[in-house]
Design brief:
The chain is an alpha/beta fold. Helix content is about 50%, strand content about 15%.
């Protein structure tokens, strides 16, 4: 997040829902935010591939009108983004779909009723998802640093490091 501004990509093709999300975020968000809204699945994939504009969090409607199943929509977007939380928004309480997206890496799953009926719920989902993402990034970096140190130590122990020896003449 540059300058503490949260860059939100909203992928949804229902105008009423889009305006409801924008209104609710406008009423509840504490930090500055920018919403980029796309209705088309293909356009969303293209934007995410080039990462311009930068995206900090994705709000993804799995009920997009397109030839793909909700599972395919999620998988294709999740495959492109790295360390960007995806909050899935659905119109119904499909427990199996919610479980699928959560097990596949979604940061959160909400029905439209979740955030319409609970003031600040969508804001909380965004804030908590970004916090979890920072923790995961830090944990991955620590794990990579630990792995690098272990590999360096193993190389040293196994003699993979070579030192030039100078002869001492008497």
């Amino acid at each position: 997040m540059e300058d503490n501004t949260i860059h939100i990509l909203l992928i949804d093709d229902v105008k009423f829902d889009v305006s409801e999300i924008k209104r609710q975020l406008g009423d509840t968000m504490i930090v500055p935010f920018v919403i980029t809204h796309l209705e088309d699945f293909k356009d969303s994939l293209e934007l995410l591939k080039i990462n311009d504009p930068k995206v900090d969090v994705i709000l993804l409607d799995l009920g997009l009108i397109c030839p793909h199943s909700p599972e395919t929509i999620f998988k294709r977007i999740e495959k492109i983004v790295n360390d960007v939380p995806i909050i899935v928004i659905t119109g119904d309480n499909d427990h199996d779909l919610a479980l699928f997206v959560m097990n596949s890496g979604a940061s959160d799953n909400m029905t439209r009723g979740d955030f319409r009926n609970t003031y600040g719920k969508l804001r909380d989902a965004i804030d908590f998802s970004l916090a979890r993402c920072l923790i995961l990034k830090s944990t991955r970096k620590d794990a990579q640093d630990s792995e690098d140190s272990k590999n360096e130590l193993m190389s040293y122990i196994s003699g993979a490091y070579s030192y030039s020896k100078t002869e001492v003449k008497e």
